[in-house]
Design brief:
globular; 6 helices; about 45% helix; 5-stranded mixed sheet; Nucleotidyltransferase, domain 5; single chain
Length: about 190
């Protein structure tokens, strides 16, 4: 290697689209400014009747992905505010369990709003899931369409994180820091 010449830094980002029936996940490799697809899929939780079993399955699968692919960072889509409080609570639990798996393995986490993810990937914060998937096919050079768009949504979270260069990283900061940065989340 020539003196002064640096190889591009490699980084693996795990993107997660939390869900209580279908949870999407996607892994990308960043080498310099080049992006490449590692894997994208979903955890189909609809067969589990018990919410606790769904949470257990999420935790186990997230740990499995982290242990197998060793991501440097995890990025999650933040739950959006809806009218059904029970659904939001369940979604928050699913997101929390995914976050806990990353924190358990000491992988820094970052959270992004759905509009921020769509804006980052397509240039339009109101883009459809199909538009996001189409843009990702171009960016990551893949052809096949997933059965569930939650998988490409998760890839979009990872790509958004890369494009943001971690500028909004909450990482492994304390809860006190998180709460001071997000005062509207305190009930």
């Amino acid at each position: 290697m020539a003196i002064g010449k640096q190889l591009p830094k490699e980084k693996i980002i795990l993107g997660i689209d939390p869900g209580t029936s279908i949870m999407g996940y996607g892994l990308i490799m960043v080498k310099g400014s080049a992006l490449s697809l590692i894997l994208y899929d979903v955890i189909n939780l609809s067969r589990y009747q018990n919410h606790e079993m769904k949470l257990r399955r999420i935790f186990e699968r997230m740990l499995g992905l982290i242990d197998e692919y060793h991501p440097d960072e995890v990025a999650l889509e933040a739950p959006f505010y809806g009218k059904n409080i029970q659904s939001m609570l369940k979604l928050g639990r699913a997101q929390g369990v995914a976050m806990a798996a990353a924190l358990y393995r000491e992988v820094p986490i970052t959270e992004y709003a759905p509009k921020k993810i769509k804006q980052s990937v397509t240039g339009n914060g109101n883009a459809s899931k199909e538009q996001v998937a189409t843009m990702l096919k171009t960016l990551l050079k893949f052809q096949e369409s997933p059965q569930f768009l939650d998988a490409t949504d998760a890839l979009a979270v990872a790509v958004c994180h890369h494009f943001q260069n971690g500028r909004t990283t909450t990482g492994s900061k304390s809860w006190k820091s998180f709460l001071s940065e997000h005062p509207k989340r305190i009930i």
